[in-house]
Amino acid sequence: MNSKKPLLTAAAGLALLGTAGCGSAGSAQDAATDEASGTPAPAASSGAPATSGEYQDGEYTATGSYIPPSNTKEEVTVSLTLADGVVTDLQVSTSGNHPTSKRYQAEFTNGVQQEVVGKPLDEVKVDKVASSSLTSSGFNKALDEIKSEASR
Question: Which pTM value belongs to this model?
């Protein structure tokens, strides 16, 4: 029973810190006051990447690579079109250097369209598409390069 006491004490201490207002965020009342005065409340910095409004419209192409268990370098080439920071068109081609990789890459390219097209570029980051996580890593590397190139 004594082994639980330090954990409960620590949890209680954290709860007290949270209710004591030891954070840097303003209260809801502060936000309402700013809104009522017509002065916009200051935006909190989240460290997030640039917003979609900060990308130049156009067509971009980049290639990302990854190493699957077959130990043969595979590549994913991503070509996309941006309009107002939103992906309006996407083409993906893959290297298909190994039969197993080729199968996963085909499944990835068939499913990635619905994950990307119509979304703001900043919201696009694929994790696992149609059971292919390694192809996703190559795709995301190419996407990072495109984001960098398209930034204003």
Answer: 0.63
